[in-house]
Protein backbone atom coordinates (compact mmCIF):
# COMPACT_ATOMS: atom_id res chain seq x y z
CA UNK A 1 0.00 0.00 0.00
CA UNK A 2 1.27 3.47 -0.85
CA UNK A 3 1.92 6.11 1.78
CA UNK A 4 -1.05 8.05 0.44
CA UNK A 5 -3.33 5.32 1.79
CA UNK A 6 -2.89 6.68 5.29
CA UNK A 7 -4.06 10.12 4.24
CA UNK A 8 -7.70 10.72 5.09
CA UNK A 9 -10.48 12.73 3.49
CA UNK A 10 -9.98 16.46 3.30
CA UNK A 11 -6.28 16.28 2.52
CA UNK A 12 -4.98 17.60 -0.76
CA UNK A 13 -4.63 14.50 -2.88
CA UNK A 14 -4.32 14.26 -6.66
CA UNK A 15 -6.88 12.53 -8.88
CA UNK A 16 -5.82 9.59 -11.00
CA UNK A 17 -6.61 7.39 -13.96
CA UNK A 18 -4.67 4.15 -14.25
CA UNK A 19 -5.09 1.34 -16.77
CA UNK A 20 -3.23 -1.52 -18.46
CA UNK A 21 -0.62 -0.41 -21.00
CA UNK A 22 -2.34 -2.39 -23.75
CA UNK A 23 -5.83 -3.82 -24.08
CA UNK A 24 -6.51 -6.20 -26.96
CA UNK A 25 -9.97 -7.57 -27.93
CA UNK A 26 -10.32 -10.10 -30.71
CA UNK A 27 -10.86 -13.70 -31.77
CA UNK A 28 -8.56 -16.72 -31.88
CA UNK A 29 -5.56 -15.16 -30.16
CA UNK A 30 -4.27 -18.25 -28.30
CA UNK A 31 -2.79 -19.90 -31.41
CA UNK A 32 -0.69 -16.81 -32.06
CA UNK A 33 0.01 -15.81 -28.48
CA UNK A 34 3.80 -15.81 -28.64
CA UNK A 35 3.74 -12.88 -31.09
CA UNK A 36 1.72 -10.83 -28.57
CA UNK A 37 3.94 -11.77 -25.63
CA UNK A 38 7.41 -11.67 -27.18
CA UNK A 39 7.78 -7.84 -26.94
CA UNK A 40 7.82 -8.39 -23.15
CA UNK A 41 10.13 -11.42 -22.95
CA UNK A 42 11.27 -14.61 -24.71
CA UNK A 43 10.83 -17.04 -21.81
CA UNK A 44 7.25 -17.02 -20.55
CA UNK A 45 5.94 -18.63 -17.37
CA UNK A 46 2.21 -19.38 -17.67
CA UNK A 47 -0.07 -19.86 -14.64
CA UNK A 48 -3.17 -21.59 -16.04
CA UNK A 49 -6.52 -22.72 -14.72
CA UNK A 50 -6.82 -26.49 -14.65
CA UNK A 51 -9.41 -26.67 -17.44
CA UNK A 52 -7.22 -24.87 -19.97
CA UNK A 53 -3.68 -25.84 -18.97
CA UNK A 54 -3.43 -28.66 -21.56
CA UNK A 55 -4.96 -26.55 -24.35
CA UNK A 56 -2.70 -23.60 -23.47
CA UNK A 57 0.40 -25.82 -23.44
CA UNK A 58 -0.54 -27.44 -26.76
CA UNK A 59 -1.88 -24.49 -28.78
CA UNK A 60 0.00 -21.65 -27.07
CA UNK A 61 3.14 -23.78 -26.65
CA UNK A 62 3.20 -24.50 -30.40
CA UNK A 63 3.30 -20.79 -31.18
CA UNK A 64 6.34 -20.42 -28.88
CA UNK A 65 8.09 -23.41 -30.45
CA UNK A 66 7.43 -22.07 -33.94
CA UNK A 67 9.04 -18.75 -33.08
CA UNK A 68 12.03 -20.27 -31.23
CA UNK A 69 10.88 -18.91 -27.84
CA UNK A 70 10.42 -20.76 -24.55
CA UNK A 71 7.31 -21.22 -22.43
CA UNK A 72 6.47 -23.16 -19.24
CA UNK A 73 2.86 -24.01 -18.30
CA UNK A 74 1.87 -24.54 -14.65
CA UNK A 75 -1.54 -25.41 -13.20
CA UNK A 76 -3.06 -22.92 -10.73
CA UNK A 77 -3.86 -24.40 -7.33
CA UNK A 78 -7.38 -22.93 -6.79
CA UNK A 79 -6.70 -20.12 -4.28
CA UNK A 80 -4.84 -16.81 -4.61
CA UNK A 81 -3.11 -17.14 -1.25
CA UNK A 82 0.36 -16.09 -0.17
CA UNK A 83 1.41 -19.76 -0.30
CA UNK A 84 0.28 -20.10 -3.92
CA UNK A 85 2.01 -16.85 -4.91
CA UNK A 86 5.27 -18.04 -3.28
CA UNK A 87 5.02 -21.44 -4.99
CA UNK A 88 4.74 -19.81 -8.42
CA UNK A 89 7.59 -17.39 -7.71
CA UNK A 90 9.89 -20.35 -7.06
CA UNK A 91 8.81 -22.18 -10.21
CA UNK A 92 9.10 -19.07 -12.41
CA UNK A 93 12.64 -18.53 -11.15
CA UNK A 94 13.52 -22.15 -11.73
CA UNK A 95 12.32 -21.77 -15.34
CA UNK A 96 14.38 -18.60 -15.80
CA UNK A 97 11.23 -16.78 -16.93
CA UNK A 98 11.35 -13.12 -17.98
CA UNK A 99 7.59 -12.62 -18.42
CA UNK A 100 4.64 -13.97 -16.42
CA UNK A 101 1.33 -14.85 -18.10
CA UNK A 102 -1.93 -15.63 -16.31
CA UNK A 103 -4.62 -17.63 -18.16
CA UNK A 104 -7.85 -18.25 -16.28
CA UNK A 105 -10.27 -16.74 -13.79
CA UNK A 106 -9.79 -13.80 -11.43
CA UNK A 107 -7.83 -15.64 -8.78
CA UNK A 108 -5.42 -17.11 -11.33
CA UNK A 109 -4.87 -13.68 -12.86
CA UNK A 110 -4.36 -12.10 -9.44
CA UNK A 111 -1.77 -14.76 -8.63
CA UNK A 112 0.03 -13.99 -11.93
CA UNK A 113 0.02 -10.26 -11.13
CA UNK A 114 1.41 -10.80 -7.63
CA UNK A 115 4.03 -13.30 -8.83
CA UNK A 116 5.23 -10.86 -11.52
CA UNK A 117 5.30 -8.00 -9.02
CA UNK A 118 7.48 -9.86 -6.51
CA UNK A 119 9.76 -11.16 -9.27
CA UNK A 120 9.91 -7.70 -10.92
CA UNK A 121 8.78 -9.07 -14.29
CA UNK A 122 6.20 -7.87 -16.85
CA UNK A 123 2.80 -9.56 -16.74
CA UNK A 124 0.33 -10.46 -19.49
CA UNK A 125 -3.25 -11.26 -18.51
CA UNK A 126 -5.50 -13.54 -20.57
CA UNK A 127 -8.88 -13.99 -18.84
CA UNK A 128 -10.92 -17.08 -19.77
CA UNK A 129 -14.05 -15.79 -18.08
CA UNK A 130 -15.46 -12.27 -18.16
CA UNK A 131 -16.60 -12.52 -14.56
CA UNK A 132 -14.68 -9.87 -12.58
CA UNK A 133 -12.72 -6.62 -12.64
CA UNK A 134 -9.51 -8.51 -11.90
CA UNK A 135 -7.85 -8.48 -15.37
CA UNK A 136 -7.16 -4.75 -15.79
CA UNK A 137 -6.57 -3.60 -12.21
CA UNK A 138 -3.30 -3.15 -10.34
CA UNK A 139 -4.71 -4.99 -7.36
CA UNK A 140 -4.41 -8.55 -6.20
CA UNK A 141 -6.98 -9.78 -3.71
CA UNK A 142 -5.23 -12.18 -1.38
CA UNK A 143 -7.30 -14.84 0.36
CA UNK A 144 -6.41 -17.27 3.13
CA UNK A 145 -5.80 -20.87 2.07
CA UNK A 146 -9.37 -21.48 3.30
CA UNK A 147 -10.83 -18.89 0.92
CA UNK A 148 -11.60 -16.01 3.28
CA UNK A 149 -10.75 -12.44 2.24
CA UNK A 150 -7.33 -11.56 3.64
CA UNK A 151 -6.13 -8.27 2.13
CA UNK A 152 -5.82 -6.12 -0.98
CA UNK A 153 -2.28 -6.10 -2.35
CA UNK A 154 -1.79 -2.75 -4.10
CA UNK A 155 0.68 -3.15 -6.98
CA UNK A 156 2.71 -0.22 -8.36
CA UNK A 157 1.38 -0.69 -11.90
CA UNK A 158 -1.37 -2.29 -13.98
CA UNK A 159 -0.74 -5.32 -16.19
CA UNK A 160 1.48 -4.69 -19.21
CA UNK A 161 -1.14 -6.22 -21.48
CA UNK A 162 -4.66 -7.62 -21.16
CA UNK A 163 -5.93 -9.91 -23.92
CA UNK A 164 -9.69 -10.45 -24.26
CA UNK A 165 -10.15 -13.39 -26.63
CA UNK A 166 -13.86 -13.24 -27.45
CA UNK A 167 -14.03 -16.86 -28.67
CA UNK A 168 -12.77 -18.14 -25.32
CA UNK A 169 -14.83 -15.68 -23.24
CA UNK A 170 -18.09 -16.37 -25.11
CA UNK A 171 -17.70 -20.12 -24.74
CA UNK A 172 -17.29 -20.04 -20.96
CA UNK A 173 -20.30 -21.09 -18.86
CA UNK A 174 -22.94 -18.35 -19.01
CA UNK A 175 -22.96 -18.08 -15.21
CA UNK A 176 -19.50 -16.45 -15.35
CA UNK A 177 -20.56 -14.03 -18.07
CA UNK A 178 -23.58 -13.04 -15.96
CA UNK A 179 -21.37 -12.63 -12.87
CA UNK A 180 -19.21 -10.18 -14.85
CA UNK A 181 -22.32 -8.24 -15.73
CA UNK A 182 -23.14 -8.10 -12.01
CA UNK A 183 -19.67 -6.81 -11.14
CA UNK A 184 -19.91 -4.31 -14.03
CA UNK A 185 -23.39 -3.13 -12.99
CA UNK A 186 -22.07 -2.00 -9.62
CA UNK A 187 -19.06 -0.06 -10.94
CA UNK A 188 -20.98 3.11 -11.79
CA UNK A 189 -22.87 3.26 -8.49
CA UNK A 190 -19.73 2.80 -6.44
CA UNK A 191 -17.68 5.29 -8.50
CA UNK A 192 -20.53 7.79 -8.22
CA UNK A 193 -20.63 7.39 -4.43
CA UNK A 194 -16.86 7.66 -4.16
CA UNK A 195 -16.81 10.76 -6.38
CA UNK A 196 -19.53 12.40 -4.30
CA UNK A 197 -17.63 11.75 -1.09
CA UNK A 198 -14.29 12.74 -2.66
CA UNK A 199 -13.12 9.39 -1.32
CA UNK A 200 -10.14 7.26 -2.26
CA UNK A 201 -10.07 5.30 -5.53
CA UNK A 202 -8.20 2.00 -5.82
CA UNK A 203 -4.93 3.81 -6.51
CA UNK A 204 -5.49 5.52 -3.14
CA UNK A 205 -5.91 8.85 -4.89
CA UNK A 206 -9.02 10.91 -5.61
CA UNK A 207 -11.57 9.62 -8.17
CA UNK A 208 -11.10 11.25 -11.57
CA UNK A 209 -13.79 12.38 -14.01
CA UNK A 210 -12.57 9.86 -16.55
CA UNK A 211 -12.91 7.09 -13.94
CA UNK A 212 -16.53 7.98 -13.28
CA UNK A 213 -17.08 8.51 -17.03
CA UNK A 214 -15.81 5.02 -17.88
CA UNK A 215 -17.98 3.59 -15.10
CA UNK A 216 -21.03 5.34 -16.58
CA UNK A 217 -20.15 4.09 -20.07
CA UNK A 218 -19.87 0.61 -18.55
CA UNK A 219 -23.37 0.81 -17.05
CA UNK A 220 -24.91 2.14 -20.28
CA UNK A 221 -23.14 -0.50 -22.38
CA UNK A 222 -24.52 -3.22 -20.10
CA UNK A 223 -28.06 -1.79 -20.19
CA UNK A 224 -27.92 -1.65 -23.99
CA UNK A 225 -26.24 -5.02 -24.68
CA UNK A 226 -26.55 -7.43 -21.74
CA UNK A 227 -29.74 -9.19 -22.81
CA UNK A 228 -28.82 -9.91 -26.48
CA UNK A 229 -25.30 -10.83 -25.31
CA UNK A 230 -26.63 -13.41 -22.83
CA UNK A 231 -28.68 -15.06 -25.59
CA UNK A 232 -25.55 -15.41 -27.74
CA UNK A 233 -23.41 -16.70 -24.86
CA UNK A 234 -26.05 -19.34 -24.10
CA UNK A 235 -25.24 -20.66 -27.58
CA UNK A 236 -21.49 -20.10 -26.97
CA UNK A 237 -21.38 -17.53 -29.77
CA UNK A 238 -19.62 -14.19 -29.97
CA UNK A 239 -21.65 -11.31 -31.43
CA UNK A 240 -21.29 -7.51 -31.49
CA UNK A 241 -23.30 -7.36 -28.26
CA UNK A 242 -21.03 -9.96 -26.65
CA UNK A 243 -17.92 -8.03 -27.66
CA UNK A 244 -19.44 -4.80 -26.26
CA UNK A 245 -20.27 -6.47 -22.94
CA UNK A 246 -16.77 -7.97 -22.78
CA UNK A 247 -15.24 -4.54 -23.33
CA UNK A 248 -17.53 -3.21 -20.58
CA UNK A 249 -17.00 -5.94 -18.00
CA UNK A 250 -13.27 -6.39 -18.54
CA UNK A 251 -11.98 -2.92 -19.45
CA UNK A 252 -14.56 -0.23 -18.59
CA UNK A 253 -15.50 -1.83 -15.29
CA UNK A 254 -11.93 -2.59 -14.23
CA UNK A 255 -10.48 0.80 -15.12
CA UNK A 256 -13.67 2.58 -13.99
CA UNK A 257 -13.49 0.92 -10.58
CA UNK A 258 -9.79 1.53 -10.15
CA UNK A 259 -9.91 5.19 -11.17
CA UNK A 260 -13.42 5.93 -9.87
CA UNK A 261 -13.30 3.96 -6.63
CA UNK A 262 -15.36 1.33 -4.83
CA UNK A 263 -17.87 1.89 -2.03
CA UNK A 264 -20.53 -0.09 -0.15
CA UNK A 265 -21.28 -2.88 -2.65
CA UNK A 266 -17.74 -4.31 -2.61
CA UNK A 267 -17.31 -3.73 1.12
CA UNK A 268 -20.47 -5.76 1.74
CA UNK A 269 -19.20 -8.42 -0.68
CA UNK A 270 -15.98 -8.68 1.32
CA UNK A 271 -17.99 -9.09 4.51
CA UNK A 272 -20.05 -11.82 2.82
CA UNK A 273 -16.92 -13.90 2.16
CA UNK A 274 -17.07 -14.79 5.89
CA UNK A 275 -20.36 -16.68 5.37
CA UNK A 276 -19.34 -20.32 4.78
CA UNK A 277 -22.47 -21.26 2.80
CA UNK A 278 -21.65 -18.52 0.23
CA UNK A 279 -18.08 -19.69 -0.51
CA UNK A 280 -19.05 -21.20 -3.83
CA UNK A 281 -20.90 -18.08 -4.95
CA UNK A 282 -19.22 -16.01 -7.70
CA UNK A 283 -17.67 -12.65 -6.79
CA UNK A 284 -19.99 -10.79 -9.19
CA UNK A 285 -23.05 -12.57 -7.77
CA UNK A 286 -22.28 -11.46 -4.21
CA UNK A 287 -21.38 -7.95 -5.42
CA UNK A 288 -24.78 -7.74 -7.14
CA UNK A 289 -26.47 -8.32 -3.80
CA UNK A 290 -24.05 -5.81 -2.26
CA UNK A 291 -25.28 -3.30 -4.85
CA UNK A 292 -28.90 -3.82 -3.82
CA UNK A 293 -27.88 -3.17 -0.21
CA UNK A 294 -25.93 -0.05 -1.30
CA UNK A 295 -28.99 1.26 -3.16
CA UNK A 296 -31.02 0.78 0.04
CA UNK A 297 -28.36 2.64 2.05
CA UNK A 298 -28.59 5.47 -0.52
CA UNK A 299 -32.38 5.33 -0.54
CA UNK A 300 -32.07 5.30 -4.33
CA UNK A 301 -35.03 6.35 -6.51
CA UNK A 302 -37.47 3.54 -7.28
CA UNK A 303 -36.77 3.66 -11.04
CA UNK A 304 -33.03 3.27 -10.48
CA UNK A 305 -33.57 0.27 -8.22
CA UNK A 306 -35.99 -1.28 -10.72
CA UNK A 307 -33.62 -0.74 -13.67
CA UNK A 308 -30.93 -2.65 -11.77
CA UNK A 309 -33.31 -5.41 -10.63
CA UNK A 310 -34.62 -5.85 -14.18
CA UNK A 311 -31.10 -6.44 -15.54
CA UNK A 312 -30.26 -8.82 -12.67
CA UNK A 313 -33.36 -10.89 -13.50
CA UNK A 314 -32.95 -10.70 -17.27
CA UNK A 315 -29.41 -12.09 -17.22
CA UNK A 316 -30.26 -14.74 -14.64
CA UNK A 317 -28.18 -13.41 -11.74
CA UNK A 318 -29.22 -14.42 -8.20
CA UNK A 319 -31.55 -11.79 -6.74
CA UNK A 320 -32.23 -12.81 -3.13
CA UNK A 321 -30.01 -14.31 -0.42
CA UNK A 322 -31.86 -17.56 -0.95
CA UNK A 323 -30.95 -17.43 -4.66
CA UNK A 324 -27.33 -17.08 -3.54
CA UNK A 325 -27.67 -20.38 -1.73
CA UNK A 326 -28.32 -19.19 1.82
CA UNK A 327 -30.49 -21.77 3.55
CA UNK A 328 -30.89 -20.05 6.89
CA UNK A 329 -30.47 -16.39 7.87
CA UNK A 330 -28.51 -16.38 11.12
CA UNK A 331 -28.60 -12.89 12.64
CA UNK A 332 -25.21 -13.23 14.30
CA UNK A 333 -23.56 -14.27 11.01
CA UNK A 334 -24.93 -11.22 9.19
CA UNK A 335 -24.11 -8.85 12.06
CA UNK A 336 -20.55 -10.06 11.51
CA UNK A 337 -20.83 -9.41 7.74
CA UNK A 338 -22.00 -5.86 8.50
CA UNK A 339 -19.18 -5.35 10.99
CA UNK A 340 -16.54 -6.62 8.56
CA UNK A 341 -17.87 -4.45 5.72
CA UNK A 342 -17.29 -1.35 7.85
CA UNK A 343 -13.70 -2.19 8.76
CA UNK A 344 -11.26 0.69 8.22
CA UNK A 345 -9.29 -1.17 5.53
CA UNK A 346 -12.38 -1.60 3.37
CA UNK A 347 -14.20 0.81 1.06
CA UNK A 348 -17.35 1.61 3.07
CA UNK A 349 -15.67 4.92 4.00
CA UNK A 350 -16.15 6.02 0.36
CA UNK A 351 -19.89 6.40 0.89
CA UNK A 352 -20.88 10.09 0.94
CA UNK A 353 -22.39 9.73 4.43
CA UNK A 354 -21.51 7.85 7.59
CA UNK A 355 -22.43 4.18 7.52
CA UNK A 356 -22.49 2.05 10.69
CA UNK A 357 -22.62 -1.77 10.94
CA UNK A 358 -26.22 -1.35 12.12
CA UNK A 359 -27.07 0.58 8.93
CA UNK A 360 -25.49 -2.17 6.82
CA UNK A 361 -27.33 -4.97 8.62
CA UNK A 362 -30.64 -3.14 8.18
CA UNK A 363 -29.87 -2.48 4.49
CA UNK A 364 -29.03 -6.15 3.88
CA UNK A 365 -32.27 -7.37 5.44
CA UNK A 366 -34.29 -4.71 3.60
CA UNK A 367 -32.58 -5.36 0.25
CA UNK A 368 -33.41 -9.05 0.60
CA UNK A 369 -37.04 -8.23 1.43
CA UNK A 370 -37.32 -5.91 -1.59
CA UNK A 371 -35.64 -8.50 -3.84
CA UNK A 372 -38.19 -11.12 -2.74
CA UNK A 373 -41.06 -8.94 -3.92
CA UNK A 374 -39.53 -8.86 -7.42
CA UNK A 375 -38.92 -12.60 -7.47
CA UNK A 376 -40.85 -14.59 -10.05
ZN1 LIG B 1 -15.57 -6.59 -8.25
Could you walk me through the main structural features you see in this protein, from its secondary elements to its overall organization?
This protein is an alpha/beta fold and 376 residues long. The protein folds into 2 domains: 23-171, Rossmann fold (3-Layer(aba) Sandwich); 173-373, Dehydroquinate synthase-like, alpha domain. The chain contains 13 helices and 10 strands. It has helices spanning 33-37, 50-66, 82-94, 106-119, 166-170, 174-196, 209-234, 240-260, 264-272, 283-297, 302-314, 331-341, 357-374, and strands at residues 15-16, 22-26, 43-48, 70-75, 99-104, 123-127, 139-143, 149-154, 161-165, 206-207. The chain starts with 14 loop residues before the first strand and ends with a helix. The site of zinc ion has 6 residues, from helix 10. It comes from Sporolactobacillus laevolacticus DSM 442. Belongs to the iron-containing alcohol dehydrogenase family.
Rg computed from alpha carbons, rounded to a whole number of angstroms: 20 Å
Can you name the CATH architecture of the largest domain? Up-down Bundle
Counting DSSP E segments of at least 2 residues, the number of strands comes to 10
Give the topology string: H per helix, E per strand.
EEHEHEHEHEEEEHHEHHHHHHH
Ions, cofactors and other ligands present here are: zinc ion
Lateral arrangement of strands in the main beta sheet:
2-9-6-5-3-4
Please tally the helical runs, counting DSSP H or I stretches of 4 or more residues.
Answer: 13
Name the CATH superfamily assignment of the largest domain.
Dehydroquinate synthase-like - alpha domain
Proportion of residues in β-strands: 5-15%
Main sheet properties:
6 strands, parallel
SS class: alpha/beta
Ranges where pLDDT stays below 50 over 5 or more residues in a row are 1-6
Q: Kindly give the count of domains.
A: 2
Mean pLDDT: 94
The helical percent reads: 40-55%
Overall form: globular
Distance between the termini: 45 Å
**Name of the level-1 CATH class of the largest domain:** Mainly Alpha
CATH topology of the largest domain: Dehydroquinate synthase-like, alpha domain
